[in-house]
Write a structure and sequence with these properties.
Layout (H helix, E strand, L loop, with lengths): L4 H5 L1 H13 L8 H13 L3 E4 L6 E7 L5 E7 L26 H18 L4 E8 L7 H7 L2 H4 L4 E9 L6 E2 L3 E4 L1 E10 L3 E2 L9 H19 L6 E10 L5 E2 L2 E10 L2 H22 L2 E10 L2 E3 L1 H15 L4 E2 L12 H6 L2 E9 L15 H16 L4
Parallel strand pairs: 3-4, 3-5, 5-16, 6-15
Antiparallel strand pairs: 1-2, 2-4, 6-16, 7-14, 8-12, 8-13, 9-11, 10-12
Helix pairs in contact: 2-4, 4-11, 7-8, 9-11
């Protein structure tokens, strides 16, 4: 089946919801207006509403039939600290804040599915509509899980979806296994001993030490990890000194690591310490390392991926579902939910638009019906009536 006819009928409503959310973006853990809108619509359709998990999170619960199975559907709600420059009539009214990643569209697609499923109730079991705050690097998914999301609202499986510029509208990408990388951040403070730039022998030059650390960290990728495995180590900040003729006491390096392998991910803090301690000892410097494992690998389980692919195929057709797309080295905090409950994270085509996140980005309106139809079809397959 293609797009669900009933969803196509109320597509203009969905467009208005999305434009309203886009015009009123809110940063992570500040999505009070967005949460109010979501909760009000769910309640209007007779869906049980729960609020407060993760601060501004909303969970809607809808049951039909007598089946005991449960499934969770997740959408993210937060915006980014980006000044919009699309010039659209519905552009952000919150200066310096923008839905530059399409979370307004994600929220709208799940609301569209909720409206349809509340009307039809063509399923047997319970749906958890999970509207998550603070996906953009602030750990909203982890906070919801830590606060008992799946204890209060048990799910056998949990599903997520993200729009993807570059994939045509109406197409999906569904892949088993790792689909997005683990994402870490690090800060390294190297302590040397300052001196006059003309007399470097009187000090321990932390700029030289830091430069050596930058190069040495790349040996983790080139000499410690198999060539077939994916790992990125990027030093993105190097802060040193304030005068042209003074060697500073210390330097600070910051950056990120990305990998698709959970075992490699677990090993990185120790690998970093060993490399950095060794380099610093060579020069007589010392170091402090602040390493944060921010996101796990986003890992799709086999059976949920099969169901998600079948649902996407029902909506889009066999030829418009990519099953061999390579994983992305970006990260996604939905991984915390997938660590707790097996599930699948899919990509839905947003067409030829600016990449995410970007001040010129625009969520493609036609994706709303495709995404809501995918969610609805997925539920009707997962919680199929006898």
């Amino acid at each position: 089946m293609p797009i669900v006819n009933r969803i196509a009928e109320f597509a203009p409503e969905m467009t208005e919801w999305r434009r309203d959310l886009h015009a009123h973006p809110e940063l992570g853990f500040q999505e009070s207006r967005t949460s109010d809108v979501v909760a009000a619509k769910l309640a209007e359709w007779g869906i049980e509403v729960h609020r407060g998990l993760g601060g501004t999170g909303v969970v809607g619960v809808l049951t039909a039939g007598t089946g005991g199975r449960t499934v969770g559907l997740r959408a993210d709600m937060d915006a980014l600290p980006i000044r919009e420059r699309t010039g659209k009539p519905h552009a952000s009214t919150n200066d310096g804040v923008m839905h530059a990643c399409g979370h307004d569209g994600h929220t709208t697609m799940l609301l569209g599915a909720a409206k349809y499923l509340a009307e039809t109730r063509n399923f047997d079991g319970t749906i958890r509509f999970i509207f998550q705050p603070a996906e953009e690097g602030l750990g909203g998914a982890k906070r919801m899980v830590d606060e008992g999301l799946f204890q209060q609202f048990p799910c056998e499986r949990v599903y997520g979806m993200h729009n993807m510029p570059g994939i045509p509208v109406g197409e999906f990408a569904v892949v088993e296994g790792p689909v997005m990388a683990a994402g870490d951040t690090f800060e390294i403070r190297i302590q040397g001993r300052g001196s006059h730039a003309a007399m470097p022998h009187q000090g321990i030059d932390p700029v030289v030490v830091g430069s050596s650390v930058v190069i040495a960290l790349q040996t983790i990728v080139s000499r410690n990890i198999k060539a077939q495995d994916a790992l990125v180590v990027s030093v993105t900040e190097f802060h040193a000194g304030e005068a042209f003729n003074v060697i500073p006491d210390s330097v600070t390096l910051r950056g990120t690591c990305r990998t698709l392998d959970p075992e490699i991910h677990a090993s990185l803090p120790d690998r970093f310490k060993r490399v950095i301690d060794g380099v610093c000892a060579t020069y007589g410097a010392t170091s402090e390392i602040d390493y944060h494992q921010v996101f796990p690998v986003t890992m799709n389980a086999a059976e949920p991926t099969k169901v998600a692919a079948e649902a996407a195929t029902s909506v889009a057709g066999q030829e418009r579902v990519q099953r061999d797309r390579r994983p992305l080295m970006g990260s996604e905090d939905f991984a915390y939910m997938l660590n707790a409950v097996p599930g699948c994270y899919v990509f839905a085509g947003n067409g030829d638009t600016a990449a995410v996140p970007h001040p010129d980005y625009e969520f493609t309106v036609d994706l709303l019906t495709h995404g809501a139809s995918y969610w609805s079809t997925l539920v009707e397959r997962e919680l199929k009536r006898a």
